[in-house]
Amino acid sequence: MSMPRIALIPGDGIGREVVAEAEKVLRALRLDLELVRWPHGADHFLKTGVSITDAEVAELEREYDAILLGALGDSRVPSNVHARDILLGLRFQLDLYINFRPVRLLDGRLTPLRDKKETDIDFVIFRENTEGVYVGMGGTFKRGTPDEVAIQEDVNTRKGVERIIRAAFEFARAQEIPRITLSDKANAMEHAGGLWRRTFAEVGTEYPEIEPEALYVDMLAMDLVRRPERYRVIVTGNLFGDILSDLGAQLAGGLGLAASANVHPGRTSLFEPVHGSAPDIAGRGIANPFGAILSSALMLGHLGFPDEQERVEIAVRRAVQAREATPDLGGSLSTAAAGQAVCRYLSEGALSP
Ligand code: NAD
Ligand code: IPM
Ligand code: MN
Fold first, then answer.
1. DSSP helix/strand/coil, 347
2. 140 and 241 share a domain?
3. Same domain flag for 90 and 140
4. 27: CATH
5. Which tens digit of pLDDT belongs to each residue from 179-211?
6. What ligand has the least distance to the C-alpha of 273?
7. Is 109 within a domain?
8. Active site amino acids
9. What global pTM score does this model have?
10. Pocket around ligand 1: residues whose beta carbon is below 6 Å from it?
């Protein structure tokens, strides 16, 4: 790859604050990366009336290797249309079918679960990212009347289901993880559930060393709290993956730490913290930048810099363990100081590997 080109889309609210810190960390690595800021978000939408154009999406696809996004969501755009256009638009149009969301406890003191240690909370969610109820198919009828009807279709295709399931199995094989958990609601949603379960069983025969188990999502939500240590790889649909990833984030210390990758292998992919624009704390300089920094670490891995990915992950873990962190993690640092702490651990790591 020639010099990788990365689009930074800080977006709204704390998205801007946390992406600034991720950018500092990326620059501190002194890699040959070209970082280009994009203005998209609520301000840009309110000013221009445009969330993102098809030509801009095409440019991202053609001329960039990755996108690092902060968050989208602003009370001045109550319909949330710009967020859907940009975030879901990029996921769909770039066909980023894998939403990879690792849940890893970096410091045992951070979990709300009693008697759980770091190794007990260490799983990844493979969330299907291009289908499900997110596709926006449906509509309303007799809107605003007592007889209003609202339909939101749940789209599941064999191709879409198979490719995310296969990605999860491939990951488990590469990591030598002995079991994969499929999560669905096949008892109530038989058509979608049937497709997911049949596909899971079929693909599973190609990976005889991995035990496939299928669990209903309500039961899994309960069991992730009861005995998270049982789980290593979870594969699920778009909506359940969204919900389980916030649950997982809290098990590991909160949304501020949770990272994600929206990937189509070999194509321009999108990296973003799991959290949103957090209007309740935006502008106060207390947002935790570690989720965004860990997302940029996932991006480094995707761009072919696994050593740098690991260095950043280690630096964040050191900062977390030293409580050189924002208040949500029990620290007293500002967003900028927490980002600075990671840069410092990075440079110390460079001196003594
Ligand atoms: P949120 O993730 O923004 O916030 C939930 C809670 O977690 C808040 O109390 C917030 O203060 C806290 N929090 C989140 N990130 C934090 C961080 N880095 N450091 C410290 N605390 C943090 O979820 P929400 O309130 O449901 O959504 C707010 C807006 O963000 C909405 O418009 C929503 O649609 C949007 N959203 C966007 C994305 C995205 O762009 N990827 C993701 C989720 C929500
Ligand atoms: C996430 C967010 C988005 C989602 C919203 C903002 C549409 O919650 O990335 O987890 O549901 O995918
Ligand atoms: Mn979410």
1. helix
2. yes
3. no
4. 3.40.718.10
5. 999 999 999 999 999 999 999 999 999 999 999
6. 1
7. no
8. 134, 185, 218, 242, 246
9. 0.97
10. 14, 18, 71-73, 80, 83, 87, 255-256, 272, 275-281, 287-288, 291, 328
